Amino acid sequence: VKMASRPTTTGFRHAPVSKVVVCGSVVLSMAAMAANVWEPRLRLNGLEDITQKLQLWRLLSHQWYFNTSYTFFSGVILLYYFRLFERQMGSARFLVQSIHMDRLVSPTNPVLVVLRSILDFHHYAS
After folding, report:
1. Which of these, 69, 83, 114, 126, has the minimum number of CB atoms within 10 Å of its CB?
2. Plot region of 65 (φ>0 → left; ψ -120 to 50 → alpha; else → beta)
3. What is the pLDDT of residues 48-57, one digit of tens each?
């Protein structure tokens, strides 16, 4: 009697996009941790980083690393579980959906930085 084999759900099998995202985030986070550059090099600190210093790369770099050990472990676990969505959708469709979500979310970062700057200014002014 031969048993039917079930598809495996362990590891990154049939999930190459998730593998690249998880490995990239882990490598960048560990490199930043080893170099001790959490503050303020990679982080999006304020509007002046973008407008006055023209450091537009900060809009992307802060999305690819985790700045504390808690966010590192919980973020890596969450990204690791995204492989299940990738297997259900297929790698090509998952990649396209991820790119669309990034395009949707990325423009909100400068808006949130401006709002934070305004709220901080009002907080210290009073």
Report:
1. 126
2. beta
3. 666 666 666 6
Q: Give me the residues of the chain with pLDDT under 50, please.
A: none
| Residue 49: count of CB within 10 angstroms of its CB | 18
Q: Measure the CA–CA gap between 118 and 96, rounded to whole angstroms.
A: 35
Encoded amino acid at 12, one letter: F
Supply the pTM of this predicted model: 0.66
Exposure class string for 83-97: b at 16+ Cβ within 10 A, else e:
beebbeeeeeebbee
Residue type for position 15: A
Which are the contacts of 28, defined by CB distance < 8 A and separation ≥ 6? 64, 65
